[in-house]
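Researcher: Before we compare anything, I want clean individual predictions. No alignment, no superposition, just each chain on its own. First chain goes here; please echo the sequence and then give the structure tokens.
Model: Echoing the first chain and its structure:
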Amino acid sequence: MLCGAADTRQVQDEFVRTVADFGGVPWHFVNGTMNYINSASSDWEENSRATVQEADVCVFVIVEEIGHITWGTEVTAALLAGKPFLVLCQQSTYERYLVLNAEFRPPASLDSLEEGTRNLVTTLREIEQDRRLTAVPFGHGKFGETLRRELSKLFDIALGQMEERNRRKSILPLLSDPARLTTKDLRTAQAIAVDEWEDKQARKAALRALAARRTLDEDALYSLLASGEQGVQRMTVELLPELYPVRPPDPALLEHVVALANDSDDVGIPRRLIPVMLDMDLSKGVEALALLEMEDSGSRRRLALALERHEDAVARQGLQSAVAALLKRCLSQTAESDWKARCRAYLARLGAGAVEPAPGD
């Protein structure tokens, strides 16, 4: 799909020939190859959005003029749809922009420029500085050559993606037997695990394999802890001791995980995190869990019981004061229950002083 102002007809013939050489079907509004519906509510912008949705590749071109619909509607539609696209700009127009951009550096006003020039500077600034896109210049009579080169790059990327997809599929049966995974397979497993677009079950299988082999990059770990897929995030927390086998653990990591739990709407995250933190390192876990919010009664119950399970180690490591402070937080805000009675008894054994009376005492 060729997108741009009316002056893109200057490069239309080269566009058609180049796309045809690639075996594609060229679309351009000038020759009427656009999706549209004529009705009382017809809208050119809606037609443009619909065509972007159907196109395989969008080619946004600036010859001299700026197309309002192209840069106001079609670019946004392509970005939102994840469409591959190119941005090409005539060399002389691009050089003109560079001179004006240097002369009118923000916060200098562009009001003294005539409207077309002002639109050119504003649009190319948005492309390169705001959206961080790359505009490729093309010389006079070189549009077809430039387009062929840039389309070839897209095809190379697409072939690489197909190769990666095939490689991922090939190791899926091996994830159930992590010992068979080679170093290259483990890198692919990590790519599967962190890919938010990948199948959830495949990501979980990759996570289990990576945990079994104690192999995961720290950047990937942080990415997985922040995953938008609830099941993947929960499993990452559960497998944290295996995914991050460094001992003693970095306190910054533990504090980061607690902060994620505090920000999460999923109560399953803090509930799973509590025993994991204490198992990884009791002292550092107690210190980090002091930062955990305690609004969820289930988290308070799990924390109290988990601390009790480590009673002997708490005494050996001299953590009575810090653990007592956590237990007191566990006793607040909820009605009495069996686990709270156990919590009170443990608190008393720690010799923490006066024990909070039970409701109704």
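Researcher: Okay. Second chain, same rules.
Model: Second chain and its structure:
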Amino acid sequence: MKRSANATTVPAFRQRRPAQLAERELLHLEMVLANFVERNAASERLPAKYWDMRIAQLDAEYDLVPSQSQRVASLQRKLALLDNALANASSAADAQEGQQSRRVAA
């Protein structure tokens, strides 16, 4: 029986990677967020869009087990909270700086 050429081609969709390979990525992302929180770097901006994309890639590219899916969701929540906290801290610092410059001008 003759095989068609389409039988050996890669399907149009990408196969998801095994959950075992996601573990390294999960650990890295958890470490990055933990280190950023530990440094309490309110003056710096966490590039949230980049890290959110990295976290979303885990869910899209890997066949995660339920515990890994929970960790991904936790990372997304932590990133959102951290980004909001940094945005609020930055706004507060800007407001305080504005008040100080008005005092100097007066």
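Researcher: What stands out in the second chain?
Model: Strands lie at 17-18, 62-63. Additionally, The longest helix spans residues 66-105.
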